[in-house]
Amino acid sequence: MRTILFSLLLTLPAFGQFPYSATTGEWLNTNSLGGVNIGSYAGNATPSIDAIRIGFFAGAGPNASLTSSIAIGRHAFYNAHADQSFGFGHAAGQYAGLGGDASSSIIGGYLAGRNANQLSPHYGFLSVVFGYEAVTTTKSFQASAIVGARGGSTAVSAVAASMLGYGTGQIATNADFSTLVGYSAGGNAAQLTNCIYLGSYAGYNYSRVNTLIIESNPAFTGTSSLIYGETDTRLIQFGATKMGFFGTPATAKPTITGSRASGAVLQDLLLKLSNLGLINDSTTP
User: Fold this and answer.
1) Residue 109 belongs to some domain of the structure
2) Domain final residue pick, 56, 85, 102
3) I need a surface site. Which of 40, 158, 213, 256 has the fewest CB within 10 A?
4) Is 41 part of a structural domain of the chain?
5) Total domains in the fold of the chain
6) Do 143 and 165 touch, CB atoms closer than 8 A?
7) Phi/psi zone of residue 59: left (φ > 0), alpha (ψ -120 to 50 degrees), beta?
8) Given its phi and psi angles, is residue 169 left (phi above 0), alpha (psi -120 to 50 degrees) or beta?
């Protein structure tokens, strides 16, 4: 990306032919220690080494640190501590890393990764964030991959988390070490530490730790989910009303009938187990 931008700039006339204000840094400001600033106040008050900042106040601010970074968009990476990072979109990464670190990150989307409340310290290093208002008020999302509009948008902490889908882990106080995949998976749950929720609305309103939930029907949550597990107690539970094994069509839970004395119950048991696909009945009368 940087190579492409520099190539485009080389095709322009000499820098001195452009309108330039040392105060505002308007249009093209090259006073940035090897970097390039394009746009009103881009990079203003923040000379960062080898940075590219494009847009109104992009990468500007007295406390910004953007060595070898790219900021594209109005207020992108404004006053951010995000060295070796790439931010694009309106206010993407604004105030990110304030008092902390948001370096080596990729942040894209309207208000994505923005430290909306200017919390300090704020951490987002080694992260990938894409989506409208993704992790906009989250204090810590380092080493995370969050993709989807409003993913973790008002979560407090989402360290080493993986979120994919709209509104995943949206209000969690703690979503550290969790994997949330699907529309609003864990979207209204306050506690999601070390959880795996897969499917649309999976565990939507279910606050847990160390829990597995696979479900795509919002009418079922928690222990009524299609698959529910707890890693700390080594528990797994299936909420299916029909099951089949080894390629056998699913059937409902069987009821075994017949007399034990006559042996009819054994015959019925073998039939029902065979219908489930759990055995091949090769017995003889």
Assistant:
1) no
2) 102
3) 256
4) yes
5) 2
6) no
7) left
8) left
Q: How many CB atoms lie within 10 A of CB 224?
A: 14
Residue 57 lies in a domain: yes
Q: Is 191 exposed, middle or buried (0-12, 13-18, 19+ CB in 10 A)?
A: middle
Q: What is the pLDDT of residues 18-50, one digit of tens each?
A: 344 545 444 444 445 668 899 999 988 776 788
Q: What pTM does this model have?
A: 0.85
199-229 confidence digits (pLDDT tens): 999 999 999 999 999 999 988 988 999 999 9
Contact indicator for 229, 210 with CB cutoff of 8 Å: no
Q: How many whole angstroms separate alpha carbon 85 and alpha carbon 39? A: 19
Rounded-to-integer distance, Cα 114 and Cα 180, Å: 21
What would the pLDDT profile of 157-179 be if each residue is shown by its tens digit? 999 999 999 999 999 999 999 99
Q: In terms of residue numbers, what domain contains 273? A: 243-285
Out of 102, 136, 153, pick the residue that ends a domain: 102
Say if strands 196-198 and 179-181 run parallel, antiparallel, or are unpaired.
Answer: parallel
- Is 154 part of a structural domain of the chain? no
